[in-house]
Amino acid sequence: MFKILVIDDTKTAHAFVNSLLRNVNEISISSAFNGLEAIELIQAAPDFDVILLDWEMPTLTGPQTFQQFKNKNIRIPIIMMSKKNSPEDIQQILQMGITEYIMKPFTTDILLEKIEFVTGKKLRHVAE
Amino acid sequence: MLQSEILSFFAQYIESELGIIYADHNYFQLQNRLEEITKLLGFKSLEELHTQAKVGIFGPLQQLLLDLATNNETSFFRDAKIFKAFEQTILTNPPIEPLRIWSAASSAGQEAISLAITINEYNDKNKKKINFSILGSDISERILTKARNGIYSQLEVQRGLPTQILLKYFKKDELDRWSVNSEISKFIQFKKQNLKSPFNFAEKFHVVLCRNVLIYQNIEGKIEILKRMTETLLPQGLLVLGSGESLLGLSTAFEQVNIDGVILYRKKL
C-alpha cells in the first residue's frame, strides 16, 4: 500500500487531491488540516511514502511545518503545493530541503509524475 | 439554456487555457466529466455549475476543469527511460563531429528541448563538451510557431520537468508563461516537414526520433516512411521509436539494441 499524507487547511483541497488520485490502485490518502495534526499522524504511523504540503496555511505555514519536521527528524519526501510561482520563491523552498514543488493549478498527470519522481516508485493506475 | 451551449462554453474555456480542441462529436466525453465535477463540487446540476463558472473559473473548479482535458498531453521527457538510454548509448560514446539529431514530428518542441537539456546536463556533470544540433520538424505551421517561440504555459512546463531543471533552463514572464533559455534553444531549429513528402536534409543524422507517429499510418505508409527515414541516418545511426512500437515486418535495415528494457534500433553498416 502506497501511503500519502495531504496537509492542507481546506476541505476542498483534500477532496480535490482524492479526486485526482481516484484511479490509482493500492494507495491510502490521509488528511491533516495543519502541521501539528500532521506531526501527530506521522508519529503514530511514520511509514508515509510522500507528503503533499500546502504553503499557505494559518497557524503554521507550509515552510514552518517543514521546519518542525526537520526538528523532529521526519525524513519523508515532501512536495510543496502553492499558487506562488515566482522562481525566487520556488528556489527558496527547494533550498530549505523540500524535495519537489507543484504550482497550482495542477492536473492528475502532473501530481502522479511528481509523486513518482520523489519516491522513485511507480503508481498503479487504471484507465477510465 | 441549451445543454450544447453550456458544453460549448466549457469547451471554449479549455481551448483558451490549454489549446486543446474538443470536437463536437466528443462533447459527450466532456459532458460526462462535467457531470462528475458537478457532483464533486456539490452543485445540483450542470446548469448550476455553468452559472458559477460564468462568475469566474478559479480554485478547485479551475483545477478539475483543466484536469479533465489533459490526459495524454505531450510532455517534456515523455518516457524518461528513453532519455536515459539515449545518454547511455550516444553520449557515453559521442561522434567526433557535432552530434546531429532529428526529432521528427516534434510537436511544440518538448522532445527537442528535453534532448538538449539531457546533453547539457551530461556535459555539466561529466565536464564534457559534446557539441550538437537538433532539428525538430512537424507538419503544422501553427505548432511550429509555438515551438520556435519556446514559450509554454505553467501546466505545460510542469509536465515532465523536475522543478530544479525548470528553474535552471526556463524564465517566467509576468503572464506566468515560461520561456526556454537561449542556452538551450540556440541548439535547436524547427522546420516544416510532412513525413509523407520527400526529405531534403543537407546532412545525415546520428539519431532520429520518430515516436508515436507511425501508429497513425497503414502498413504501406509505415514501410515507405521508414525506408526514406533510414536513408537520412548515418551508418550505425540510431532510430528511436515510441515504447509500444516495433520495426517487426517493417524494416530489416536495423539491429535492436536493448538498454535497460528500452529498445533502440541501430542502422546496419
> What gross morphology of chain A would you assign?
globular
SSE order of chain B, as H and E? HHHHHEHEHEHHEEHEEHEEE
Largest sheet geometry of chain B? 7 strands, mixed
How do the SSEs of chain A run, as a string of H and E? EHEEHEHEHEHE
The total count of helices of chain A amounts to 5
Oligomer: heterodimer
N-to-C CA distance of chain B: 66 Å
For the sheet with most strands of chain A, the description reads:
5 strands, parallel
Mean pLDDT of chain A, to the nearest integer, reads: 92
| Spatial shape of chain B | globular
Task: Kindly state the number of beta strands of chain B.
Answer: 10
Secondary-structure content class of chain A: alpha/beta
Q: Kindly report how far apart the N and C termini of chain A lie.
A: 21 Å
Strand content of chain B: 15-25%
- Unreliable stretches of chain B (pLDDT < 50, length at least 5) are none
* Gyration radius of chain B, rounded: 21 Å
Rg over alpha carbons of chain A? 14 Å
Structural class of chain B: alpha/beta
Count of separate DSSP helical elements of chain B: 11
The percent range for helix content of chain A is 40-55%
Q: Helicity of chain B, in percent?
A: 40-55%
What features would you highlight for this structure?
A: 128 residues, 5-stranded parallel β-sheet, 41% helix, globular, B: 269 residues, 7-stranded mixed β-sheet, 3-stranded antiparallel β-sheet, 11 helices
Structure description:
The complex is a heterodimer of chains A (128) and B (269). Chain A is of the alpha/beta class and 128 residues long. Chain A is built from five helices and seven strands, in the order βαββαβαβαβαβ. Chain A has helices at residues 11-20, 35-44, 62-71, 87-96, 108-119, and strands at residues 2-7, 24-25, 27-32, 50-54, 78-82, 100-103, 124-125. In chain A, the strands form two sheets. In chain A, strands 3-1-4-5-6 form a five-stranded parallel sheet, sandwiched between helices. A two-stranded antiparallel ribbon of chain A has the order 2-7. Chain B is α/β, with parallel strands linked by helices. Chain B has helices at residues 3-18, 27-40, 46-55, 59-69, 80-91, 110-126, 141-149, 154-158, 163-169, 182-185, 219-231; strands spanning 99-103, 132-138, 151-152, 170-172, 178-180, 188-192, 205-210, 233-241, 254-259, 262-267. The radius of gyration of chain B is 21 Å and the shape is globular. The model of chain B has no long low-confidence stretch (mean pLDDT 90). Classes of the chains: A alpha/beta (128), B alpha/beta (269). Chains A and B meet through α1, α4, β6 and α5 of A and α4, α8 and α9 of B.
